[in-house]
Design a protein that fits this description.
The two termini are 27 Å apart. This protein is 49% helix and 14% strand. The chain contains six helices and three strands; from the N terminus they run H-E-H-H-E-H-E-H-H. It is globular, with a radius of gyration of 15 Å. It is an alpha/beta fold and 96 residues long. Strands 1-2-3 form a three-stranded parallel sheet. It has two domains: 64 residues, Dimethylsulfoxide Reductase, domain 2; 31 residues, no CATH class.
């Protein structure tokens, strides 16, 4: 992770994949909970149902090895619905 805990606290949506952050990283989960208290949404993607799954607003159970397909589908959804930062894509990626 390369972001600061403040990013968690101020997030509208947090996508957590393959990590049981509630049990393994309780300090960072405190900031995720702060975002949830302000109306943020926690999405937990994992093959296992854990304490993080129980706290999540959305739990997406995947079969092991299907995480890349899930992320590809998520990216396609964003592109199809134009819910991405067009300026960022044009300036900082090869997307255009």
């Amino acid at each position: 992770m390369t972001n600061h805990y403040n990013d968690f606290r101020n997030a509208d949506v947090i996508l957590n994949m393959g990590s049981n952050v509630a049990e393994n990283h309780p300090v960072s989960f405190k900031w995720i909970q702060a975002a949830k208290d302000k109306g943020g949404i926690l999405i937990h993607v994992d093959p296992r149902f854990t304490r993080t799954s129980a706290k999540a607003d959305i739990f997406a159970r995947l079969r092991s090895g299907t995480d890349i397909a899930f992320l590809g589908g998520r990216r396609k959804f964003n592109i199809d619905n134009k819910i991405y930062d067009e300026f960022y894509v044009k300036k900082y990626t090869n997307g255009y």
